[in-house]
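Message: I would value a second opinion on how I read folds in token form. Give me a protein, with the fold worked out from its sequence. Write it directly below this note and I will take it from there.
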Amino acid sequence: MFETCRLTDYVRHLKVEKCCCCQSSLIDIKPTKYIERQVFDPGRPGEFEVTAYWADVKVCPCGKRNTAEFPQGVKAAAQYGEVTQAMAVHLNQYHFIPYHRVSEYFNTIYCMSVSAGSVANFVAYTHENLASTEQSIRDALQESPVAGADETGMRVDGSLWWLHIMRDDQWTLYYLSERRGCEAMDAMGILLTFAGILVHDHWKSYFAYAAVHVLCNAHHLRELQGVVDRDANKLALRLMKLLTLSWHFCKKYKAAGLTQMPGAIQLRIETIYDQILQRALTKETAYMEKQRQVLGRKKVRDTKAYNLFKRLIEFKVETLRFMSDFSIPFDNNGSERDARMAKLKQKISGCFRSEDGGTMFTRIRSYLSSAKKQGLNIFQALLKAVRNYNNTPLLGAE
């Protein structure tokens, strides 16, 4: 695995200056031997660099044998360095390159025989080093004033699991579970105590939590577009234009320094909103009654348009809340963007072969997504994670 016969490029001499037992000076005492450990890291293309650490071994007059301490992480006689580990994790977890192709990359570019198993070990070590960081992200999101939530299907060992996402502008937390509803959301450890504004796509399980709920209008616009395409419904088209225009007004007023839409304009928009939906609901009710008579049935199934219009009436406050507070987004597209990376991973390198693989991905990806939102260099962030031997939070909750 390692070219141990190769000459070293750098030597780091680790000296023993005093006895760890009696504290006597050992500066003038000659070492009885040296313990050498080599660390392999990428250098220029086609090459790699070897750093040898020579640790003094000295015997104190008191009889105590003293050995110089190696740097943290230097544990074996020959091993891969922190840069190699960070590069491997970066390629696998950020660019979604499979283990064996990461191994091929090091072999091709740097002539380093890094096995696929070693890459898997690097990912596992990084996952362990980020345990406290994951908790700090969870703590930060619990205190967030406005957060988005979403879930998307992921394949784990051939079965359908659910990737739950909680995020805001600074933080992202991913959680993988076999469940989609409240059981998984409770286990995620945020929503039970979350008291801020929660933006989501109307999945019923979210309403079980005592948050201020806001519904994603991007979803509403897509559903309304479906009604327009299917039924040529002009009222649905008018409602789409009203929602889009309302958001345009909000952005203009926010740019002017306001924190909410002027009351008179907001009232006018709400009135038009009510009128359109009442007319649309009446029209759909008449259509369903006509269908009932034609088919000779006591009752017919509610149309998709009817259910949509009814839902928009019942959840009017949650739909239009963005007008009363400009800190509230119009949609939940931020959560969908965070979910897109997980779907891209599945598309490139396939499903997770085990729950452990999925858990490692969610923790490392939570860290990387949060670091990127905070403007940190992704590779340097991973290098810090590899060096985080004491498992301290790398992204503190502020």
In short: The first helix runs from residue 82 to 94. Confidence is low (pLDDT under 50) at residues 1-5.
